[in-house]
Design a protein that fits this description.
Elements (H helix, E strand, L loop, with lengths): L1 H19 L4 H20 L6 H4 E12 L5 E11 L8 H11 L12 E10 L2 E5 L1
Length: 131
Amino acid sequence: MYFKKFIAIAILLITITGCSSGPSDSDIVEAFNNQAIVQLDNAFAPLGFKTSDAIDFSIKIENKAKQDDGRWLVQTETRMVAKKNIESFTEQQQMGLMVMFGQFKKGQDIGKPQKGNSHMTKGDKGWILSN
């Protein structure tokens, strides 16, 4: 009898603990790649290239904290590094890139590292960025 209660309580504790764990660093990077970069790709699609053709993103997770509403507040610092010289793109692509990022060369940081806050929610298909 006590053994059954022990097992039931153990399962309940494991379930509660599993539900309260936050997103891993890889979950955060994956959500960023799947959502934020896709939005940039959509913006540059009329110019005929993807953001990932021009820029590498480096995301440093500075803090994660569970909020009262069940979401997780994630504080990040994002760095952008040029994959190619801007001259390697067509004139039209160069104009679009220069409007957004200015002049750049391969391996160069683009702008300053950007600090930001995002909320994350666990969805049916994993962690997603939410408002």
